[in-house]
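Thread: quick sanity check before group meeting

JM: Hey all, I'm pulling together slides for Thursday and realized we never actually wrote out the predicted structure for the chain we discussed last week. Dropping the sequence here so it's in one place. If anyone has concerns about the input, flag it before I start.
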Amino acid sequence: MIETGLKLSKMQKPLWNLIFDEQKKDKEDGNNNKTRPRLIYVMIVIFLEYFSWGLITMPTITFISRYYGRYTFIMNGLALGSKGFISFVTAPILGRLTDLYGRKPYLLTTVLITCTPIPCLLLPGPWYITIFVFSGFLGNSFSIVNAYAADITTIADRHNAYALISATFGASFTCSPFLGALLSERYGNPTVILLALFISLFNLFFIYTLVPESHTNNSAVEPIEFLLLFNTIREFYTSLKSWKDDYIFKISMVVFFSSLSETGQISCFFIFLRIIIEMSMSEVGMFIAYVGILAVLFQAFLFKYLINTISIKGTVALALLAQMIQLFFYGLCFNIYVIWGLGIFLAISQMVYPALSAAISLSHTNEEQGSSQAVINGIRALCSGIGPAIFGIIFNFFGFDVSADYDNPHNNVDSIQFQQTNIEMEKIPEKLLIPNSTNTEQISRSEFLKIIPGPPFLLGAISVFIAFFFLLALKKPKIPGKRRHSPRTQNEDTTTLLTDHSEEE
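JM (edit): ok, ran it. Output follows.
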C-alpha cells in the first residue's frame, strides 16, 4: 500500500503549480485565465484576515482590561465562549448555503463580519465585546476557504491544498502579534488598530474584485429563498443529519478533544512562558517565530510525504501523538532547552486540522463541501471558547492568574512596558506568582506549581488521548459516487489516502 501511495504522489502537482494553476474544468467556459479560481486567492484572503487580527492581540488585551479591570478573564471567556457557541450552531447552516448559492458571496460576507469588531476597539464601552460575540453568526471564513479549495483541486491534491491553507494561517500568526506589540509600544494602540482596519478593508476589496466564484450548483435555487425564514430553518435541520453518520461523528470527536487542548494551550501559553518559565519578551517572540516557521515547513513539505506513505489516518495519529507529548512535558518541565525542543512536537501537532479537513472533504461530494467543512469548523469555534475557559479556571485554581499584568514592574519578570493593564500581582521569589493572600489552602495550591508548572497541559494531554481513541475507532467511510466496474478511479485514490495502510497489509 505504501507503493500505491507513492504512485498516487506522482499524480499530484508540484506545490508551485497547485498554488498558482487555474481550475482545469473551467477551460470550456469563456473566462480568461485571470478570472479562473486559483488556490493563491484564498491563501491571500486567509493571510490578510488573520494577520490583521494578530496585529491587535495586545491592543485587545489592553482594551478589555481597561474597561473590565479584574473581570478581564471572565469577560474574555464569556465573549469567546458565546461567539464559539453561536458559530457552532450557525456554521453548518452557512456551509450549506454556500453549497447552494456559491462560495464568493459568503466568503465576502464572513470576512466582513469577522473584521467588524476591529474598529470597535476605538470606541468606549461594550461595543467591541458585543459586536465580537454577534460576529459568530457569520464570521466563519475558514470552512468556506476549505470548501473553495475542494472545488478547484483534485482528490490527489486536496490534502496538500489544506496543508498550504493551514500553513498560511500559521504564517500570518507567526510574527503579527509580536509586530503589533512593537508598533503599539512605539506608535500607540490607535495606530495599530487603524493599520489592522486598513488591511481588512484591502482584503474585502481583493475578494470583491479579484477572487472568482469556484462553485456552481446545477440545481435551480431561487435567490429569493434566502430571504425566507423557513429556508434557513430547513437548512439547519439538514445540517443536523450529518451527525447521524458514524464517520462524521468520530471525526468530530477527534476535532473536539484535540482542539479543546489546542485552543486552551494557545490562550495561556504566552503568559505561561513569561511568568512561570521566565522567558524574556524577546525570547517569547523568537520562540513563537521558531514554532511558526517549523509548522509552515512541516505542513508544506513533510505533510505531503506522510499522507502518501502512512495515509491521512496515520498522519493524524502521528500529529496527535506529538500533541500529547508536548502537552505532557510542558505540564511537567521547567528546563528552557526542553521547552525549545518540544517546540518541534508543537509544530508537528499543527498537522491535525488540515489532515482531518482532507478526510472530511474526501468523503463528501463537491455539492456537500461547504456543509461538511462547516461541521468541524463549528466544533473548533466552540472549542475556542471552552478551551481557554477550562485552562484559565485550572490555572486560577492553583493561584496563577492568566489575565495578570505580566509586564508590570512589580512582577518578577523583566519590566517591559506594554499597555496599561491595571491587574497587578505581588512579586514573590522562586519562579512563581500567587495572589496576595495569606490563606493556607491557596498557598499550598500555589506551591504545587513549583513542582508541576502546567496542570492544564496535563489535562490537555488526557483530552488528546481520548481523541486518539476515537481516531482508532474510525473506519473507512462510504466514498461518494463510487462505481463498481471501472479501472483505477478517483474513488480508489480516495480510499488510498483515507485508509491506514498498516490495517490492509
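AS: nice. The mean pLDDT is 76. The domain at 36-504 is CATH 1.20.1250.20 (Growth Hormone; Chain: A;).
JM: adding both to the slides.
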